[in-house]
Amino acid sequence: MLTAIVLIDTDPDRIPEVASEVAAIDGVSEVYSVTGKADLVAMIRVREHHEFADVIADRLSKVRGVVRTETFIAFRAYSDVDLEQAFALGLDD
C-alpha cells in the first residue's frame, strides 16, 4: 500500500463540507481538521502509484472549496502505531 499525506487549504466557510466530500473519495482513508499551515490533512492510500493522480489531481483538488493542496508521498513507515493514535488529542482514561 502506498501512502500520501495531503495538506488542503480551503475556503474558510466550507471547511466542514470540503472535509466530508474529501472523506467520501475512494482512496482517502482519513481526513483531519488541523491547526497550523493547512485547514485539513487527508491520508491517501492506494495500491499503484498512478492512482495518486486519480485521487488527488482528478478528484480531491476539484472539490468545491479546495483552494490549494500540497502532497507528501511517504517513502517508508517507521512505526506500526495506529494512525488514529498518532493524530488523537487528549489523555487516555
Please name the defining characteristics of this protein:
single chain, 93 residues, alpha+beta, Alpha-Beta Plaits, 4-stranded antiparallel beta sheet, 3 helices, 32% strand
In brief:
With about 90 residues, this protein is α+β, with helices and mostly antiparallel strands.
Please, could you describe this protein's structure?
The chain has 93 residues and is an alpha+beta fold. The chain has one domain: Alpha-Beta Plaits (2-Layer Sandwich). Helices cover 23% and strands 32% of the residues. It contains three helices and four strands; from the N terminus they run βαββαβα. Strand 2 (28-33) and strand 3 form a beta hairpin.
Strand content: 25-35%
Outline: globular
Number of strands: 4
**In this structure, how is the largest beta sheet organized?**
4 strands, antiparallel
What is the CA-atom radius of gyration, in angstroms? 13 Å
- Mean pLDDT across residues: 90
**Helix fraction bin:** 10-25%
Domain unit count: 1
Q: According to CATH, what is the topology?
A: Alpha-Beta Plaits
